[in-house]
Design goal:
- 44% of the residues lie in helices and 13% in strands.
- With 330 residues, it is α/β, with parallel strands linked by helices.
- It has 2 domains: 262 residues, Spore Coat Polysaccharide Biosynthesis Protein SpsA, Chain A; 59 residues.
- α10 packs antiparallel against α11.
- It is elongated, with a radius of gyration of 26 Å.
């Protein structure tokens, strides 16, 4: 979620009027080539970029070649997620070559989800396509995504059927996660982790993103009743640079799955989960109280020895009762 997204951004270079930008003047350090435009944007490409100085020029050439053949007014939003190499300078060169390529620059690295969220916020296209900047996603698949969207789908996800990544650190964890997510949310997608996806803007505008949740947008959106499709896409080995994540991200993925399951299951009835906890707490508290009373009445056990038990009973019984009262009132 980007409630404070403006604080993260120090630069926006685009062909949009500065008065229409969501950024205040004191948050911009560059305002080059800002021009008024009233043209309707049909397609937005959102690309998170982090330390990809060797790749961005090849990405620019490939995208330009593909997008020039598509009969749509387009924009490409390159979100520099706090790169520490020469990526930003390369992105500025790209912008000066083609004003349809626009730059958002973060103050520091906030992660792929936040970079995508910023791109979504500024995108003007009726359809938004996301892909990685590492050249592993193939821009030549963009027309296929658009064709699938035109078939009536709200979201189209890419499936890297022949994935060119390390088996142990990337492919196996991904296969396990995909099966778990599909089972939990009943959305049959083979590859949630594929960044290459197409979205209708009216759908993406109604989804808030947290943590690493960009990959779970199809699951969240399907709960909203949208139509989700999938196509097989190309996937290339990384030629330059190195992957920005590995097994360490598995923990965050698991936590995000739990969070999304909670949000989807209880978004319309949030107190029910607390009611269940309250019932359990109340039952345990009552059992302990009855135990203490039985010990005192029938076995003459001194209550002074049960002070810790009394405290525990109060802790368990009172919050449990309060939770039940609140739940019932709803």
């Amino acid at each position: 979620m980007l409630n404070n997204k403006n604080k993260k951004i120090i630069s926006l270079e685009s062909s949009n009027s500065i008065k229409n930008s969501k950024l205040s003047n004191n948050q911009l350090i560059n305002q080059s080539s800002l021009e008024n435009t009233s043209e309707k944007i049909e397609l937005s490409i959102v690309i998170p970029v982090y330390n990809e100085q060797e790749n961005v020029e090849f990405l620019f050439e490939s995208l330009t070649n593909v997008l020039s053949k598509i009969n749509k007014k387009y924009e490409v939003i390159l979100v520099d997620d706090g790169s520490t190499d020469n990526t930003y300078e390369k992105l500025k060169e790209i912008h000066y070559k083609n004003k349809n390529f626009k730059i958002i620059r973060f103050r520091r690295n906030f992660g792929q989800t936040q970079a995508m969220r910023a791109g979504f916020d500024y995108a003007k296209g009726e359809i938004i396509i996301t892909l990685d900047a590492d050249l592993q996603n193939d821009p030549n698949d963009i027309p296929k995504l658009l064709d699938k969207i035109n078939d009536g789908y709200d979201i189209v996800s890419g499936w890297r059927k022949n994935r060119q990544d390390n088996t142990i650190s990337r492919k196996i964890p991904s296969i396990i996660a995909n099966k778990i997510i599909s089972k939990l949310f009943n959305v049959k997608i083979h590859d949630y982790g594929c960044t290459l996806k197409a979205y209708k803007k009216d759908v993406i505008d109604n989804i808030e993103l947290y943590g690493e949740m960009h990959r779970y947008i199809p699951a969240i959106a399907s709960w909203m009743g949208v139509k989700v499709g999938e196509i097989i896409v190309n996937h290339h080995p990384r030629k330059f640079g190195k992957a920005k994540y590995g097994l360490s991200r598995t923990i965050r993925v698991i936590l995000d799955i739990i969070t999304i399951k909670f949000l989807i299951s209880y978004s319309k009835r949030p107190m029910q989960i607390f009611g269940l906890v309250g019932i359990l707490s109340t039952i345990i508290g009552l059992i302990l109280i009855i135990w203490v009373l039985v010990e005192r009445i029938f076995f003459a056990v001194a209550l002074s020895g049960y002070i810790p038990w009394h405290i525990l009973n109060v802790i368990k019984f009172m919050p449990g009762s309060q939770s039940e009262v609140i739940t019932c009132s709803l």
